[in-house]
Amino acid sequence: MSAVTQHLLLRGEHAATQLHELGVRRGGVLLVHASMRAVGGAAGDMVHALRRALGPEGTLVVPSFTPENSDTSRAYLDRVRGLSEAAGATVRASMPAFDPAVSPAPTMGALAELVRLAPGARRSSHPQTSFAGLGPAAAQLLDGHRPDCHLGEGSPLARLYEADAQVLLLGTGFDSCTAFHLAEYRRPAPPRRLYRCVVASGRGRHWWEYEDIALDDSDFARLGGDFVRARPGAVSTGRVGAASRLFSLRAAVEFAVGWFTEHRAAGA
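^ thats the sequence. predicted structure below, dont judge the formating
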């Protein structure tokens, strides 16, 4: 074994130990949001550490969202802002149809992309908000993602809730906490809107429009702060390369349902 390889293994062992100390359950299910820029080091080392901490019976899940193929996403609106109608049409014509087998998720970060591309990884089939996973429960958690349900009862988030998954924010804040979106579906009278994206089917590349909950993460940071203050001990904090937070997805969703009911007007 070379000195470099030994150093990488030791670094992975150290990160796995830190994850255990933080409270990651061996054999459990873990949804990870990671910023490797904040954490530092190589994404591959962190994936190894996460899988080592979870053990062979554990399952690692990451978001593999693809706003790049939608003309109703913030990513698209930012891209075409200031362009002429013709230039915008050119952008739309160049947007690739979603293919769960090959469509990249560049905005999700290096760690999520490594999980998506790993041998044996599963990916859910939603053309906008897919998830990728590694481990024995991946198929059960990710299969059957309804195409008209971003992050609600017909999505992997609901299956993660049922599995009592943990959430790890690795170098990211609560503004990245996808689990809170499940609570948006469970609050009274959530508003709805139209979404549109490019998909592929037997009739080739085409645009598909559907209605779903109007997702809004603009207050997630404030929600997360209130969750920490209102539930002492519910969120474990530590350093796994960078500041990290670990908590129960179920507890976060249940708190968020009440929080949304109090802080967001019905239908808004």
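Strands lie at 29-34, 59-63, 122-123, 131-134, 166-170, 192-201, 204-213, 235-239, 243-248.
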